[in-house]
TrEMBL record:
Pathway: Metabolic intermediate biosynthesis; acetyl-CoA biosynthesis; acetyl-CoA from acetate: step 1/2
Record-annotated active site: D149
Coiled coil: none
Keywords, alphabetical: ATP-binding, Cytoplasm, Kinase, Magnesium, Metal-binding, Nucleotide-binding, Transferase
Assembly and binders: Homodimer.
Gene: ackA
Residues carrying the site annotation Transition state stabilizer: H180, R240
UniProt lineage: Bacteria, Pseudomonadati, Pseudomonadota, Alphaproteobacteria, Hyphomicrobiales
EC number: 2.7.2.1
Binding site for substrate: R92
Biological role: Catalyzes the formation of acetyl phosphate from acetate and ATP. Can also catalyze the reverse reaction.
Catalysed reaction, written as an equation: acetate + ATP = acetyl phosphate + ADP
Name by which UniProt lists this protein: Acetate kinase
UniProt organism field: Pseudahrensia aquimaris
Cofactor note: Mg(2+). Can also accept Mn(2+).
Length: 390
C-alpha cells in the first residue's frame, strides 16, 4: 500500500479535496470537489496535469452533508487510486483564533476550542469542522490536522492586531486576524527556495482571487494584512465589500431598517466587483465589458490595491518585492500593469512583454523592486503540514 495524504476544505455547499503521494515532499495526484451539497450535487476530479478524469452528476438528494460527500470521494478515490492508504488528513480551517499559530492535531479538546470560535466565522467554521468529524469517521486511524487561514498572521505587531475599541473587546478576541494565511505561507516557502534575497527583505503579496487580500511580509513573517476581523475587510472582492466605514452599517440598520442577515448578505454576496459593476463578480467578464459601471468597478479595485501598496511599503520601511498570486494576480496582466503603473517613485518598473506572458518575474531588469507572479498552492501547504504527522 502506498502512503497518501488527503486534504479537505469543507464548505457550506462543497467539499474540495486533494490527494498527495506522501513519499518525501508531497506530490499532487488528484484534486477534485463535490459541489451542490443539499441540492443537485456533482463531483469532478482532475489529475496532476489538470485533465478532468471524472465528472459525475450525483443522485438528486443523495448528498446532504459533508459525510455524504466524503463517502462519494472515498468511492472515487478507491477507483482512481487503489492500493493507497490515507495516512493523514489535512483540513483547511478558516479560524484558529488567538492561540493557534501553526497546524495542530485535531483531538477532541482542540475541536471543542475551535467550535467555540464559530461566532467569529459563522459562515465557514461549522462546515470546516463538520468535515473533520466526517473524515474522522472515514479514516479513524489517520491523524486529522487543522491548518488555519489565520495562523500565519498571529505574530503581527500589536498595532496591526487591534482595533481602537475599548480594550475588553481585544481581550475577548475582537482582533485583526488576517486570512489567506496558507496562501501567504506557501508563497513565502517558494521565495525562500527560489529568491532567498527577496525572501529576507520587505515583500508585499497580493492574493487576488474571488477573495482578495494583501500581506506585508518581512523576513518571511507577516507584519500587516488587509483582512481584519472577518474576511470582509481590506480590498474589494468578487462579491465582498472590502474596507467600509462602520458608520455605513449603522446607517443600514437605523435608516434602511436592515437586519443583521440582510446586511451580511449585502456585504458578503452583493458588494465588491459585483455590486459596483451590477454585472458580474468575474474579472474576465469585467475585463471584456465596455460597460461604464464595469470600468468603474475595475478602477476601484486597482485604486485600493495601489493605496495598500503605499501603506504597506511605509509599514515595511521599504520594499524589495511584490508578488501577485490568485486567479486574478496570476492571469490578469492588465490588472497587474495598472497596479504597477507610474510606481517608479517606489522603485517599481514593469516589463510589458514579460507581464503579457504571465512570466514568473514581470519587472524590468532595471526595476529596484522585483515583481513576481507566483501561482499559489494552498492544498500543497496543507499536505506538507499534514505529512509532518506521518
Ligand atoms: P478563489 O478565491 O475562489 O480561489 P480564484 O483564485 O480562482 O478564486 O480567482 C478567481 C478570479 O480570477 C475570477 O475573478 C476570475 O475571473 C479571475 N481569473 C481567472 N483567470 C483569469 C484570466 N485569464 N484573466 C483574468 N482574470 C482571471
Amino acid at each position: 500500500m502506498r502512503q497518501v495524504v488527503l486534504t479537505l476544505n469543507a464548505g457550506s455547499s462543497s467539499v474540495k479535496f486533494a490527494l498527495f503521494d506522501a513519499d518525501g515532499d508531497p506530490t499532487l495526484e488528484l484534486v477534485g470537489r463535490v459541489e451542490g451539497i443539499g441540492s443537485d450535487a456533482w463531483l469532478r476530479v482532475k489529475n496532476a496535469q489538470g485533465e478532468t478524469v471524472v465528472r459525475r452528476d450525483l443522485d438528486e438528494g443523495a448528498i446532504t452533508s459533508p459525510t455524504d460527500a466524503l463517502a462519494t470521494i472515498m468511492t472515487v478515490l478507491s477507483e482512481l487510486a487503489p492500493d493507497t492508504e490515507v495516512r493523514a488528513v489535512g483540513h483547511r480551517i478558516v479560524h484558529g483564533g488567538v492561540d493557534y499559530d501553526g497546524p495542530v492535531l485535531l483531538d477532541a479538546p482542540t475541536i471543542a476550542k475551535l467550535e467555540a470560535l464559530t461566532p467569529f466565522a459563522p459562515l465557514h467554521q461549522p462546515h470546516n469542522l463538520a468535515g473533520v468529524v466526517a473524515a474522522h469517521e472515514a479514516f479513524p486511524d489517520a491523524p486529522q490536522i487543522g491548518c488555519f487561514d489565520t495562523a500565519f498572521h498571529r505574530h503581527q505587531p500589536w498595532v496591526n492586531d487591534t482595533f481602537a475599541l475599548p480594550r475588553r473587546l481585544y481581550d475577548e478576541g475582537v482582533r485583526r486576524f488576517g486570512f489567506h494565511g496558507l496562501s501567504y505561507e506557501y508563497i513565502v516557502s517558494q521565495m525562500k527556495r527560489d529568491a532567498p534575497y527577496h525572501h529576507d527583505g520587505g515583500v508585499i503579496v497580493a492574493h487576488l482571487g474571488n477573495g482578495a487580500s494583501m500581506c506585508a511580509i518581512r523576513g518571511g513573517l507577516s507584519v500587516a494584512s488587509t483582512m481584519g476581523f472577518s474576511a470582509l475587510d481590506g480590498l474589494p472582492m468578487g462579491t465582498r465589500c472590502g474596507q467600509l466605514d462602520p458608520g455605513v452599517v449603522l446607517y443600514m440598520m437605523d435608516q434602511l431598517q436592515m437586519g443583521p442577515r440582510e446586511i451580511e448578505h449585502m456585504l458578503y454576496k452583493e458588494s465588491g466587483l459585483k455590486g459596483l459593476s451590477g454585472l458580474s463578480n468575474d474579472m474576465r467578464e469585467l475585463l471584456a465589458s465596455n460597460d461604464r459601471a464595469a470600468k468603474h468597478a475595475l478602477d476601484y479595485f486597482v485604486f485600493r490595491i495601489r493605496r495598500e501598496i503605499g501603506a504597506m511599503a511605509a509599514v515595511l520601511g521599504g520594499l524589495d518585492a511584490i508578488v501577485f498570486t490568485g486567479g486574478i494576480g496570476e492571469n490578469a496582466d492588465i490588472i497587474r500593469e495598472r497596479v504597477c503603473d507610474d510606481m517608479d517613485w517606489l522603485g517599481l518598473e514593469m516589463d510589458e512583454d514579460r507581464n503579457r506572458l504571465n512570466a514568473p518575474i514581470v519587472s524590468s531588469d532595471r526595476s529596484r523592486v522585483r515583481i513576481f507572479v507566483t501561482p499559489t498552492n494552498e492544498e500543497l501547504m496543507i499536505a506538507r503540514h499534514a505529512s509532518g504527522w506521518l
